[in-house]
Specification:
Homotetramer. The protein has about 525 residues and is α/β, with parallel strands linked by helices. The chain has 2 domains: about 50-265 and about 480-485, Aldehyde Dehydrogenase, Chain A, domain 1 (3-Layer(aba) Sandwich), CATH 3.40.605.10; about 270-465, Aldehyde Dehydrogenase, Chain A, domain 2. It has 20 helices and 20 strands. It binds nicotinamide-adenine-dinucleotide (NAD). The site of nicotinamide-adenine-dinucleotide has 30 residues, from α10 and α11.
Length: about 525
């Protein structure tokens, strides 16, 4: 990594950001020590600013501040809390230029991808501002003894929610879980990835401007292995997004602390092209599925299965469309594909590719590191003849590498797609949407997009999103995405005083009557069906 001031100045000159702006943002973090985390721009591999490295004590203090602020926040009406979140959505749209600059600077991604993630924030705000309050009201449920007892359910915020977010979509993933948590009346302590703290701090600033009281959202910047466990040990619920490996350790820790956790983890997502698909459309979709954000998207497709009659035509179209993609790191909308995040991500992509080739794969297009474009830029790559036991076939590459495999029929495509410990997202291409949905039902994953790569699933904010198997636990989006941050309370009331069987000689008689009534009620229920 370079700390050459000329390189840093040149990357900052492409944006409207200044060194003073980073200082202002970093000052939002309260830390007792002097240790710093240096943040660099993947486009030039140069440091541009630093944030405090929070230790366990700093995390403790942040959670205490959040806890102190939470009850007054929870006392405000749900509509009032929703209005703050709604205003935040407006501010994100208004300040989009700076947020896009920050996102691109920290991640090296193409601006069009940054714009896509930015749009997700006001979408989440709209959804939870509109639906959140109605999800929080008291509900009547069926009582134990009709006419005699009643049951009502009310919902309380869990308290302080810890959000741990990754670097790949640092703008939306910093707040997509925080938004429903806040509407539900919780306080939030957010720990963004060390590589992308500034966009999270800028969002925290906008939440404050939108009217969020002091302390209700705290940001701690620190290394994952230090700040992460410290956070999980102090909060009442965790929403984690990141790798499956770290997710397991988060779940273990949450389990020991007996707190709830939702885990949005990795994937090795399949894309299936059925024999009736429009090949050109499927190829365009596959390019989006495989190469958006240089493949550093949890929903990215990495394994493409094509039913045999279409294999050659699809491969031609897919390779042609892949070759037309432009690679770049400019702070404008010219590039289709941007940089990988850092040297370790580049190493991972190269290692997976080397293993694929050594185990028999052919590189049909791409396959090269492009330091002439950016230090971590890598060409969108299409492989064929991939060994099903190779690393690229079995593990998440999280880079711009897709393998294409011919399969005899739809059943074989489903079997190959399901042959993975992951189950996050899948994509199915067909001329017959009903057939597509039938195939989708047989795929073992949390979202399946028919005739789309991932966006129609991700952006269906009213519908739950999450993973099967090693791709995670719990769901974000939809009512499920808010209810995970609530404790439910059942209040049962008797109209007749204590509900109990009489004692003494009447017990046998009363129990007999109860068994008889209960049996009659069960029979009537069946008869009414
Ligand atoms: P990572 O697990 O290394 O890091 C994610 C976050 O966890 C960071 O904030 C990091 O600082 C923190 N962390 C690290 N060690 C920790 C620990 N011991 N305890 C608590 N927190 C800790 O993830 P990554 O590799 O940087 O991110 C990419 C991964 O995230 C990919 O596998 C990708 O598929 C996954 N991801 C999943 C989704 C989803 O919605 N399912 C979305 C985006 C990314």
């Amino acid at each position: 990594m370079s700390s050459d001031p000329t390189t840093t100045t040149s990357v900052l000159a492409s944006t409207a950001l200044s060194a003073e702006r980073f200082e202002t943002l970093a000052e939002r973090v309260t830390a007792s020590g002097t240790e710093r985390i240096h943040v660099s721009a993947p486009a030039t591999d140069s440091e541009f600013a630093s944030v405090p490295a929070c230790d366990e004590g700093d995390v403790d203090a942040a959670v205490e501040r959040a806890r102190a602020a939470q009850s007054a926040w929870a006392d405000r009406s749900p509509a009032d809390r929703a209005a703050v979140v709604d205003r935040f959505g407006d501010l994100v749209l208004e300040r989009r230029d700076e947020l896009l600059d920050l996102t691109q600077l920290e991640t090296g991604k193409a601006r069009r991808t940054a714009a896509e993630e930015l749009l997700d924030v006001p979408m989440s705000c709209t959804y939870y501002a509109d639906t959140g309050p109605s999800l929080l009201g008291e509900e009547r449920r069926r009582g134990a003894f009709p006419g005699v007892t009643s049951a009502r359910v009310s919902y309380d915020p869990v308290g302080v929610v810890g959000v741990v977010s990754p670097w790949n979509y640092p703008l939306t993933l910093a707040v997509t879980d925080a938004i429903p948590a806040l509407v539900a009346g919780n306080a939030v302590v957010l720990k963004p990835d060390e590589k992308t703290p500034f966009v999270a701090l800028a969002l925290a600033e906008l939440l404050e401007e939108a009217g969020l009281p002091d302390g209700v959202l705290e940001v701690v910047t620190g290394s994952g292995p230090v700040a992460g466990p410290a956070l999980i040990d102090r909060v009442d619920s965790v929403a984690f997004t990141g790798s499956t490996e770290t997710g397991r350790s988060v779940a273990e820790r949450a389990g020991r602390n007996l707190i709830d956790c939702s885990l949005e983890l990795g994937g090795n997502n399949p894309l299936v092209v059925l024999d009736d698909a429009d090949v050109e459309e499927a190829a365009r979709g596959a390019v989006v599925a495989c190469f958006t954000n240089a493949g550093q998207l949890c929903l990215s497709a990495e394994r493409v299965y094509v039913v045999e009659p279409l294999y050659d035509a699809f491969l031609d179209a897919f390779v042609g469309a892949t070759r037309r993609l432009s690679l770049g790191t400019e702070f404008d909308y010219r590039a289709d594909v941007g940089s990988l995040i850092d040297a370790s991500q580049l190493d991972r992509v190269e290692a997976h590719l080397t293993d694929a080739v050594e185990t028999g794969a052919s590189v049909v297009t791409g396959g090269r590191h492009r330091p002439d474009v950016g230090p971590f830029c890598f060409e969108p790559t299409v492989l064929t003849d991939v060994d099903p036991d190779s690393t690229v076939a079995c593990e998440e590459t999280f880079g711009p590498v897709a393998s294409v495999t011919a399969v005899p029929d739809a059943a074989a495509a489903v079997a190959a797609a399901n042959d993975s410990p992951y189950g996050l997202n899948a994509s199915v291409w067909t001329a017959d949407r009903e057939r597509g949905r039938a195939v989708a039902r047989r795929l073992e994953c949390g979202t399946v997009c028919v005739n789309d790569a991932y966006l129609s699933g991700w952006a269906a904010i009213d519908a739950p999103m999450g993973g099967y198997g090693d791709s995670g636990l719990g769901r974000r989006h939809g009512p499920e995405g808010l209810r995970r941050f609530l404790d439910s309370k059942t209040i049962a009331t008797s109209r007749v005083g204590p509900v109990a069987f009489p004692s003494g000689g009447a017990t046998k008689w009363a129990l007999g009557a109860a068994f008889g009534l209960f049996g009659l009620q069960r029979r009537l229920r069946r008869w009414r069906r």
